[in-house]
Amino acid sequence: MLFLQGDKNNFTLVIAGLVAIVSLAVWSFTRHDSREPPLAPVSIPYLSHIIGLSRETYNYYVNLSKKISSPIFTVSLPGQKMYVVTNADLVQKVQKQYDTIAFPPLAAAFSSRTAGTSEASSQAMKRDNYALVHVSNDILTDTLKPGENLDRMNRVMLGEIGRSIQALEPAHQKTVRIQLNKWLRETLTRATTRSMYGPKNPYEREGVYDAFWDFEGGLVALAIGILPSIVAKTAVAGREKVAAAIRNYYKEGGLEASSEIPRRRYDIAVSHKIPESEIARFETGMALAIILNTGPATFWMVLMAYLAPGLKEDLRGEIDACTKTAVEKGVITKSLDILNLKESCPLLLSTYQEVLRYFHVGTLVRQVTEDTYLDQYLLKKGAMVHMPSRTIHHDPNVYGPNASDFVPRRFLPSEKKNRPKDHCFRGFGGGKHLCPGRHFATNEVLATAAVFIARFDMDPVRGKWEMPTGFNSGSAGQIMEPDHDVEVDLRTRDGFEDVVWELRLKTSDKIFAIVTEDMDEN
């Protein structure tokens, strides 16, 4: 204080010096080496990228990739350099260099910042070369692979979905009006979290569901970490409410009847000496992985059945053919087995894959942990590697001249000769950190969409079907969120009145492959 009062000129010089030092640090990091990937063309350095990412969001990299022929290019922002990989073959090579182009440092930083954990807990994530990050991923991979634990979770999930759809059933010759995306999101959130956490599911406590979506809406501000209590006040409040519900869940013995996942995650965190209150904070991020994408994927599945000419009728033909009907004491029961759906409904599965291709807006992000080469390109330590799926999925050189069209039959077995190599499908990421929940998500989306399509007829309240835009999709989700909901009048399909529906799952440890890594397993 004496210095500030006594010599304003010196103070000005110090500030000027600090600005110079910061500027030099930014310049030294962002200056371009000729061995690095070529710079993306810009009209105004730094600013053009900031404006482009803000305005065009997930389409910015797609548009940039059209202006540069290189399979990887450099995007420089103040203080941060990013390498954007737009070629599927090169993405495969990135995935093989997982030690030097790594995921754990980002996972640890993102989890700690968004969860609001203490410095001690944040350091625990980094110890022993991010051992806790690695083992947490191993737990998810092990518990969500086809087998007994996944089957148990699937049966709980299917039971919840079945009850929700049965409760939705309109009275005879009546309609029920719903917001399609809202109803699906709420239903699948409840089914997914109940299958994960058991009957004491913390997300079913009053206000927790809404608090989670408040938390999700402020993830970017939380991840940046600059004054989150001010710039992300609503998100912080939502996170605290969710964390409190999870702490109560632990105290009330909720883990005793949960799936293996939260129990094993809790035990491994305790073994790393993380206190229970902090474990609850880390667990708030778990819902981001298990909730965010199945709702919008199911929404687009159901909506595209009505928007794509003839698709609803063809899908119904497949689903009806593998639906079993039984009559007992005058009660008609129709049952759908999920394994049969996946094995006997190729158009349903193809439509699902096309939803994941067409509506995928996710970007895999890795951090360069030391100077390394990717093919002939030098990648500098500290830079980020971005791998946006959309640059591959919507590239006419990869998926043909109709890459920007929704083609539900694109992934039929008969169309394989017209498709690119299997690793060009990036619906679940890939490599060492391939989405571990892909089997559960596939079962949930296919089951819900199949029953909706087979059981109900829908009419748009606005009078015609329209495709919502999805420019405001959240930062953490991989599947495009509609900018506005679609309000529909729902009625029972003719000839299906007074029918009880059952969703079933035969015991199976078969790996049903829709990504190249699973094909290698079979």
Automatic annotation (TrEMBL):
Signal peptide: none
Cofactor(s) this protein cannot do without: heme
Protein name: Cytochrome P450
Key word Transcription present: no
Family per similarity comment: Belongs to the cytochrome P450 family.
PANTHER family (alphabetical): P450, PUTATIVE (EUROFUNG)-RELATED
CDD domains listed in its UniProt record: CYP7_CYP8-like
InterPro entries assigned to the protein according to its UniProt record, in alphabetical order: CYP450_monoxygenase_sec-met, Cyt_P450, Cyt_P450_CS, Cyt_P450_E_grp-IV, Cyt_P450_sf
Ligand binding (heme): C435
Residue intervals passing through the bilayer: 12-30
Key words of the record: Heme, Iron, Membrane, Metal-binding, Monooxygenase, Oxidoreductase, Transmembrane, Transmembrane helix
